[in-house]
Amino acid sequence: MSVLRAPRALYIHIPFCTNKCHYCDFTSYVLKGQPVDQYLDALEQEMRRTTAELPPEEIDTVFVGGGTPTVLTPPQMERFLANVRTYFPLAANVEFTMEANPGTTDLGKLTAMKAGGVNRISFGVQSFDNGLLERIGRIHNVEDVYRSLDNARAAGFTNMSIDLMFGLPGQTALHLADSVRSALALDLPHYSIYSLKVEENTLFHKLYERNELPLPPEEEEFNMFILLMDMLKANGYEHYEISNFAKPGFESRHNSTYWRNEPYYGLGAGAHGYANRQRHVNLKGITPYIESAASGLPRLEVFEVSEEEAMEDLMMVGLRLLAGVPASRFAEQFGGRRLEDKFGDVINKLKTDGLLESVPAERDTIYRLTGKGVLLGNDVFGAFIG
After folding, report:
1. Cα–Cα dist 163/128, whole Å
2. Using a CB cutoff of 8 Å and minimum separation of 24, what contacts does 216-224 make?
3. Distance between CA 44 and CA 352 in Å, rounded?
4. In this structure, which of 187, 223, 248, 356 has its CB flanked by the most CB atoms within 10 Å?
5. Looking at the predicted structure, is the pLDDT value of residue 78 above 60?
């Protein structure tokens, strides 16, 4: 039997944006004309029902994503954050992250966020090239990035991260290097670097189907990833997860919950949650979500996660962390089961292929990606499926 406990992590989804980016397939809707206050009413109802059904212990991490949570007005922001504190007991050292788009964060809004308990901001910058930002459908420009960061510092924020993307249409390694240099000059404690994935139901997918999306060649994208790793490491950032780099002590604690396959609350339209070996997905449409939350939990789907699937999940997400997966973590989550008994053949093959290594630790063994394994991570993760 696995060891189960109440989540200590909380994800909340705010699904409104000023516009829809060309690559985005997240649950998000253009803000104009949307019933934002009714959505916040429904979100509070979901908070109340969720905490009644699964009473929380102390919450260590909160992550508010979207969409663009910072499209909320200061009064809406204050109300929303007050509800979070009302229904969820936050630890004294809670990591409370909110995603933000440059250009949607004036000083008044940031001050309301800080007063409401937010202590970490993740800015969706994507690039420091104005032409590239326009091509991918972002509404901000580079000047907005600097202004937003200045406002955040003025509001008292010190723990900030920015997202950058690579493999974008028309992007070259030289473009990327310029963006990384601009990002590093900001001297922030955390950077997330993501490759473009062309998802269905996006403008980019339509262009791709028509052969009108000038993506970099696969080899160029591969070289971009190596360039990113080299530049960030050379500037003192630890590559602690496939797509994430941090100064010591500034790793994302909330996202580490996912990578360790631990439970988390998931609230809001389209949100996912995981607790008591069950995953759920909420209704995605704004009106269906609001209507459903008036009478019950706004679920689209709830399904049991078998122990077999949970074991596979732990290895797939856990190996994204470059620190690796300790055998003791596997045993703790699965009632003393030995990782080697379950996945010994897979591990041995990956070690033979030079993609995985085992490292002895005190009364433990840690399995982690090699340098080659980092570059071919998807091959490693897929090896643990079924």
Report:
1. 11
2. 216/167, 216/168, 216/171, 216/172, 220/172, 220/173, 221/166, 221/167, 221/195, 222/375, 223/173, 224/166, 224/167, 224/171, 224/173, 224/176, 224/195
3. 52
4. 356
5. yes
Q: What is the mean pLDDT of residues 301-308?
A: 95
Q: Residue 140 corresponds to which tokens in the numbers above? A: 């901000």
Q: How confident is the model at residue 73 (pLDDT cuts 50, 70, 90)?
A: very high
Cα distance between residue 191 and residue 147, in whole Å: 18
Quick one: pLDDT at residue 224?
95
Are residues 168 and 127 in contact, defined by beta-carbon separation less than 8 angstroms? yes
Helix then strand count (H, E) for the chain reads: 15, 17
Q: Average pLDDT in the 78-89 region?
A: 98
Q: How far apart are CA 19 and CA 21, in angstroms?
A: 6
Reported as a single tens digit per residue, the pLDDT across 124-176 is: 999 999 999 999 888 889 999 999 999 999 999 999 999 999 999 999 999 99
Q: Which of 31, 63, 43 is nearest to 268 (CA)?
A: 43
Pick the closest to residue 183 from 209, 200, 163, 207 (CA basis). Answer: 163
What is the distance between the alpha carbons of residues 265 and 259, in angstroms, rounded to a whole number? 15
Cβ neighbours for 370, distance < 8 A, ≥ 6 positions apart: 354, 355, 356, 357
Of the pLDDT bands very low, low, confident and very high (cuts 50, 70, 90), residue 4 is: low
* Percent of the chain topping pLDDT 70: 99
Backbone φ, ψ for residue 279 (5° rounding):
-110, 145
**Which pLDDT value is given to residue 2?**
44
Q: How many CB atoms lie within 10 A of CB 131?
A: 9
Instruction: Please give the pLDDT value at position 3.
Output: 44
Burial class (CB within 10 angstroms; exposed 0-12, middle 13-18, buried 19+) of 315: buried
Residues 6+ apart with CB under 8 A from 239: 229, 232, 233, 245, 322, 374
Say if residues 271 and 39 touch (Cβ distance below 8 Å).
no
Domains of the chain, CATH where assigned: 9-259 (3.20.20.70), 324-383 (1.10.10.10)
Backbone angles phi, psi at 194, to 5 degrees: -125, 140
Structure pTM? 0.94
Strand order in the sheet with 272-275: 272-275, 278-282, 299-304
Residue 104: left if φ>0, alpha if ψ -120 to 50, beta else—which one?
alpha
Both tokens of 161, joined, read: 């991260």
